[in-house]
């Protein structure tokens, strides 16, 4: 068995994975901004368009453009692709399991009435990663999962024919689990799981002063979730079975501003600037562990996503879209962990769909790519030093019934 100091250091590294391990491979920390195929196909440049029920997420003021009842259901299917190679030549890769994320939106917008009402159910953070075994950082990352589910009622008010405002509370539930090596004896494993709730809100503004120009703004309040759960190890030392464990995790605020230009009825070109306040996420504190209070430094930095998209309307209600997004890295090399293989990421999207009298549908494909992120002199997990190559694939489908 290790002495007390070595055990404490090992367990501090293990604690990193409670929430950070089950994160989609990519950029912008553990945020998941992909919530609708029409938006994804446009590089998520949608805040100044926001003309379907997913506006509840992208810009709730957009639901004031709708009229009647809309029920939209969709799913995002993501396959993380990350390869690692250390300086010594050791390799590891993320498994190709498909991660499925549901999206459900309902909007009621009465005819000739200034208010519209919406309800959204979506997952703005999470997914999972599963590193192949054995890997050179078994005591840093093996596998885990994170669920962050948001229930979001909203009310939009059409103040003027050119201006709409909206706001709504968010009810957020999160659940996390982790399995990873300890490094005391061969094939040992640390297990932890927990869940918690936190309230928040989102708000939006949509302004279209001219037929060809529209401006949008969306803001989401940051939340802190206090997780309560249990931790254990196999074999049972150094942790007893089912030991009570707590952690406080910060999910930061973010804001998106965009402009849409529509030179004709058939074209819509949009650019968005998407800011996430990752600088507010400094560390994670764990209580009730076998070694008392433990703190994991993260020292994230705030980052931007630069989103561009274009949509072309075709005949009989059909449309096609194309988009690009550049997402900045949020995790400094000195505190990098492979459970958040964060990097500058290039994302491309393409999609098509149709808007009909009763039914709308859309499908979009997205990829994320970074040829290599070099990590050196990592102070949190030195075993993570090396090169990370990222290529993610995702498909999003949705259908909307109008009545």
Provide an overview of this structure:
The protein is mainly β and 403 residues long. It has a single domain (4-402), classed as Outer membrane protein transport protein (OMPP1/FadL/TodX) (Porin, Beta Barrel). Helices cover 6% and strands 57% of the residues. Strand 10 and strand 11 form a beta hairpin. It is globular.
Write the topology of this structure.
Elements: H1 4-15, H2 17-20, H3 37-41, H4 55-58, E1 68-79, E2 82-85, E3 91-93, E4 99-109, E5 115-130, E6 143-160, E7 163-180, E8 189-210, E9 213-220, E10 223-234, E11 243-251, E12 254-261, E13 267-276, E14 283-289, E15 292-297, E16 303-313, E17 318-327, E18 345-355, E19 359-375, E20 386-402
Antiparallel strand pairs: 1-4, 1-20, 2-3, 2-20, 4-5, 5-6, 6-7, 7-8, 8-9, 8-10, 9-12, 10-11, 11-14, 12-13, 13-16, 14-15, 16-17, 17-18, 18-19, 19-20
